[in-house]
Amino acid sequence: xxxxxxxxxxxxxxxxxxxxxxxxxxxxxxxxxxxxxxxxxxxxxxxxxxxxxxxxxxxxxxxxxxxxxxxxxxxxxxxxxxxxxxxxxxxxxxxxxxxxxxxxxxxxxxxxxxxxxxxxxxxxxxxxxxxxxxxxxxxxxxxxxxxxxxxxxxxxxxxxxxxxxxxxxxxxxxxxxxxxxxxxxxxxxxxxxxxxxxxxxxxxxxxxxxxxxxxxxxxxxxxxxxxxxxxxxxxxxxxxxxxxxxxxxxx
Length: 251
Hints:
- By secondary structure, this protein is α+β, with helices and mostly antiparallel strands.
- A hairpin with a 2-residue loop joins strand 2 and strand 3 (58-63).
- It has helices spanning 3-14, 18-24, 26-31, 77-85, 99-117, 127-151, 153-159, 205-212, 218-223, 233-250; strands at 38-44, 49-55, 58-63, 70-74, 92-94, 165-171, 176-182, 185-189, 198-202, 227-231.
- The chain folds into two domains: 3-117, SCP2 sterol-binding domain (Nonspecific Lipid-transfer Protein, Chain A); 123-250, 2-Layer Sandwich (Nonspecific Lipid-transfer Protein, Chain A).
């Protein structure tokens, strides 16, 4: 596992799920309700840089840290990954006087996110919790595919075999995502494409979750028609190879 790739996965995949969390979870939404907008930036040396923008109970993520109220800078991808793992304490390089936001609101937000992403079997018995947890996991996985395809050597080899165009990933009764490919570079956005060149559709949230958790075999699900694939199948084949790498980075 490459630490720089993991930093991209952690920033855009894991922390990148916070905007959706603020839409789905009332407690997260309340934590994002501030008297005035607040921008929290993350800059990793020789790695990614992005800013979480909190405003009106919502959150968005933008590239770069040129404009932020507080910036957390990390001397290496390993240090940033340590923060995500809970083994490294972040130190603000800008906006030290906003440290209470970091300690109180942001930490609570990440605790809520962890609750959903690392849910135990008992918690998943609740249907509403199950749906939110699975949608957030879908969000993390789709973004991670893009980051691993762009930065991991093995993932980049698979990406080099994907032609330009949009790939739709969707769950019946649940969310949709688009993986856009341009010159073998992948980007993810969370809406269905207008004109996908390939489609991979999971028929239900339960099926998608079972696949995410490694409880069922994808090939068998395709045979039973529980996973629908159409369009340029070679695009999906290579995305599936990158998905195998996602399990390595998110384990």
